[in-house]
């Protein structure tokens, strides 16, 4: 297979972890006889230092023309310390999602048996955790109308959703649930928010088309508690933009490191794959960032194109690194290996294998056939 892949390293540790993903992809090319073209482009603070825009027109054009996008991270300390800045690096990511119509964010959260002790929760609680969060990504309060009074003492952010926006990601989530353990949980705040009531109404109707999937609705405050008390009760979680942002953070706590969580952002024409973590600017250039989340995002990219054997070979190599404790300092308290070494180890252990060690018990089905 031939693929053109846009590489958007971004800021902080983004370029460092993305470089390890490229190592793995080059190993996949050699092992499975594929041909990938890599084209780099700036986004975020690094782009602002050049063009003044967090998402330059050239970067957006490249993304539109590519088969897939691999994203690093975005954000810089100078903007974190200046919350009143008119233009911020994060706007580049939000604009990218909106311009490319990446409406569905898919975030698997799976507990690795070798890392049980890395979780702050009891082993009896986290053992067997295997869930996936479907977060609506281009609507809601993050993209709604924003206002602040002239004297700066009153502000508002509008949370707005249409039935169409809810329906398209709900169908994706139900289809994923059919392939997994046939359970879906809608997370909302329908006892207070009108937008959540529309979510509840729309999903209730859509559920009738999936009689083999058991579903329930849960308020966000209860869902946040249940994620910590019994994460194994969840299979597929469907929710809006802000609530999905919150629950994804909790997922990183469950498995013990934000450096292990990948994600995919899917639209009707484009797809982007990125680690869940931020830019971690304090670690930039120190060779301590965990590349596994970025590498697992690459796994999701390969799955998106139906390259299951290739994806599985990377997952097997990651399992090998974990079992041998070839990990970065955030895992198991080890400080022996750095970002580059872990990336080298994983890429060098990628081989053609029939053993199934996927990051999900079942493929979450990111192929274009799931897009409605």
UniProtKB/TrEMBL annotation:
Pfam assignment, any one: Iso_dh
InterPro entries registered for this protein in UniProt: IsoCit/isopropylmalate_DH_CS, IsoPropMal-DH-like_dom, Isopropylmalate_DH
Listed GO MF terms: 3-isopropylmalate dehydrogenase activity
SUPFAM superfamilies: Isocitrate/Isopropylmalate dehydrogenase-like
SMART domains membership: Iso_dh
Domain Isopropylmalate dehydrogenase-like intervals: 4-346
Gene3D superfamilies per record: Isopropylmalate Dehydrogenase (3.40.718.10)
Its EC number(s): 1.1.1.85
Cofactor field: Mg(2+); Mn(2+)
Residues that span the membrane, as ranges: none
Reactions performed catalytically: (2R,3S)-3-isopropylmalate + NAD(+) = 4-methyl-2-oxopentanoate + CO2 + NADH
Cofactor binding note: Binds 1 Mg(2+) or Mn(2+) ion per subunit.
Function: Catalyzes the oxidation of 3-carboxy-2-hydroxy-4-methylpentanoate (3-isopropylmalate) to 3-carboxy-4-methyl-2-oxopentanoate. The product decarboxylates to 4-methyl-2 oxopentanoate.
Family: Belongs to the isocitrate and isopropylmalate dehydrogenases family. LeuB type 1 subfamily.
Name the UniProt record assigns to this protein: 3-isopropylmalate dehydrogenase
Origin species: Euzebyella saccharophila
């Amino acid at each position: 297979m031939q693929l053109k892949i846009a590489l958007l390293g971004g800021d902080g540790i983004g370029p460092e972890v993305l470089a390890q993903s490229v190592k793995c992809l080059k190993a996949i090319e050699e092992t499975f006889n594929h041909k990938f073209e890599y084209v780099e482009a700036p986004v975020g603070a690094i782009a602002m230092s050049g063009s003044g825009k967090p998402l330059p027109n050239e970067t957006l054009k490249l993304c539109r023309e590519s088969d897939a996008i691999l994203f690093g991270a975005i954000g810089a300390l100078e903007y974190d310390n200046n919350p009143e800045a008119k233009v911020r690096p994060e706007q580049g990511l939000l604009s990218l999602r909106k311009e490319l119509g990446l409406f569905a964010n898919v975030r698997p959260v799976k507990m690795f048996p070798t890392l049980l002790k890395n979780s702050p929760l009891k082993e009896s609680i986290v053992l067997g955790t295997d869930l996936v969060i479907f977060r609506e990504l281009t609507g809601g309060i993050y993209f709604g109308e924003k206002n602040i009074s002239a004297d700066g003492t009153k502000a508002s952010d509008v949370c707005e959703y249409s039935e169409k926006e809810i329906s398209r990601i709900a169908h994706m989530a139900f289809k994923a649930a059919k392939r997994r353990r046939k359970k879906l949980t809608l997370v909302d705040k329908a006892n207070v928010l009108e937008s959540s009531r529309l979510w509840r109404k729309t999903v209730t109707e859509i559920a009738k088309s999936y009689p083999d999937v058991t579903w329930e609705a849960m308020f966000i405050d209860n869902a946040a508690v249940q994620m910590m008390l019994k994460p194994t009760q969840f299979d597929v979680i469907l929710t809006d933009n802000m609530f999905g942002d919150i629950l994804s953070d909790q997922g990183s706590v469950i498995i013990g490191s934000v450096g292990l969580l990948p994600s995919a952002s899917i639209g009707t024409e484009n797809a982007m794959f990125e680690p869940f973590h931020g830019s971690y600017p304090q670690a930039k250039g120190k060779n301590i960032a965990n590349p596994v989340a970025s590498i697992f995002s690459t796994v999701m990219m390969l799955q998106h194109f139906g390259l299951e054997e290739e994806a599985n070979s990377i997952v097997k190599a990651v399992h090998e690194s974990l079992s041998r404790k070839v990990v970065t300092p955030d895992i198991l308290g080890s400080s022996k290996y750095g970002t580059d070494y872990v990336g080298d180890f994983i890429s060098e252990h990628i081989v053609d294998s029939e053993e199934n060690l996927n990051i999900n018990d079942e493929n979450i089905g990111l192929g274009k056939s799931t897009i409605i």
